[in-house]
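lol so apparently i was supposed to do this last week
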Amino acid sequence: MNRTNPIGFFDSGIGGLTVVKSVSRLLPNENIIYFGDTARVPYGSKSNDTVIEYSIQAANFLLRKNVKLLVVACNTASAIALKELRRFLTIPVIGMIEPGAKMAAQTTKNNKIGVIGTRATINNKAYTNELQRLNSKLKIFDSPCPLFVPLAEEGWIKNKATELIAKEYLLPLKEKEIDTLIMGCTHYPILYEIIQKVVGKKVQLIDSGSPASYLVENYLSGRGLLNNSNQIGMSEFYVSDIPSKFKEVAEIFLGKKITHIHKVELEELTTE
Ligand code: DGL
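anyway here it is w/ D-glutamic acid bound
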């Protein structure tokens, strides 16, 4: 494995870009390959078997691009498929749950943590189990927020409708007096402003992208695999469908032009 090989990221759609943004900020020289399964988003309402199958296909696609490390930039896939991916991959695999939970456990002062995520992530109790393993005194209040995913994919970042939906989902958590809220879906940081407005400034929002990026740095430096070139890394984006909004929302969110965007045929993913 070479230092200049890219880091691979995958998500069901645009959400994983929130993780790419954190990693690129911390490690600007790394080359990045991103796969967004936009033809099959959302993952959060699918069965565990389907999420595992799609995650393995995404990982195999990225392996064929010679990635040196895989970031599962999707909480749903991290909650359900991480063990399976680690079992069959020889490269390191980083998920979202452990870094996000650890940061939340370190942040809370009153031990009351809210967790929002897809139905699959919440039903699988991924964060609850990890938080309780870290500190059995924590009180955890969780709630699925499935409508946030299409709102983020549509780029409805400042709309009134998004705020109304956010109130519906988040005010019951606010009433529990949480002081920390884990945005347990990589799409949600796209709606950061509205989420913060609804829960209030006193609630600390946790986005797994930032703690995960430190984990990426640790893994790579520990294995002598940090890219030490002094050039800004290349980013390539692959999607299983090119929805009209993908490029626009991705560019607003990343704050830069996306030039290398390619469509992957589903057939290429499903045939070994
Ligand atoms: N961004 C994903 C997550 O972190 C998936 C959202 C979805 O496809 O439902 O869970």
